Every structure is written in C-alpha cells, then in structure tokens.
Amino acid sequence: MQPSSLSQMIQSLKAVIENADAVYEKIVHCQKAAMEFHEHLHSIGTKEGLKERKLQKAVESFTWNITILKGQADLLKYAKNETLENLKQIHYAALSCGLNKPGTENADVQKPRRSLEVIPEKANDETGD
Question: Which stretches does the entry tag as region Disordered (predicted)?
C-alpha cells in the first residue's frame, strides 16, 4: 500500500522537527568557529602573500559567508516553528472532521466542539467543594 500525500507530508514535517535542532546546532557551531578564524584571517592572508586588494576581497567574502550561515540558522529555526504549527493545524483539522483514529485523542480533546456548544464544568468548583 502506497502512503497518501497527507501521510508523506506528515512524515516530512516530523523529520524536519526531529532533525532541526541538531542541524541548527551544527550551523551555529560552524558560525562560531568561523568567527574565531575570522579574527586571524587578515594575518593569515598576509603571511600567505595576499596583496591588499585580494586580501580585502577574501576577508569580505569570508564575512559574507558567516552572515549567510547566520541567516540559514535563523531560517531553519523559523521553518521548525512553521512546521510545528502546520502539524498542529493538521491535527486539529483531522479532529474537527472526525478523521482521528480511535484511542488517539487527548483526554482534554475528546471530540471537536462547535462554536456555540456548552462547555461542561469540571467536577470541583472554585470553592473546593
């Protein structure tokens, strides 16, 4: 049996959620290492015989790459948050349409509520009786 498009999407969303933190940490680690290396880049370039113009271009390029790493890390964090929101929306859409599997609903969310349906009160009232 071939998985449905929805199942494939859910699996992809879960993969993003599961892997995003580890990838984010690797990107941040690379960025920090690059920042440390950046401090010595000018002297390294001079030792290697780069002239002023080429050295300046190399430093600018390296600086740009560090900026790109930061941007990619930010995008990944944003993508993970969007993915969590998408998965939540899929879950609530399935609940509201009655497509959830038996036994998978939370104790708090047993059935979808219509906007004007009465919400039952809890057994204990505010006085503690």
Answer: 103-129
Other beta carbons within 10 Å of 9 = 14
Residue 67 CB neighbours (<10 A): 11
d(CA 47, CA 60): 18
- Give per-residue pLDDT as tens, 30-85: 999 999 999 999 899 999 998 999 999 999 999 999 999 999 999 999 999 999 99
Cβ proximity of 65 and 34 under 8 Å:
yes
Contact assessment for residue 31 and residue 108, using Cβ atoms and an 8 Å cutoff: no
**14, 107, 109, 111, 128 from 124: Cα distances, Å:** 38, 17, 19, 22, 6
The total number of residues written for the chain in this structure: 129
- Report the phi/psi class of residue 105: left, alpha or beta, with left for phi > 0 and alpha for psi in -120 to 50: beta
CA distance 9 to 117: 32
Q: What is the residue extent of each domain of the chain?
A: 5-96
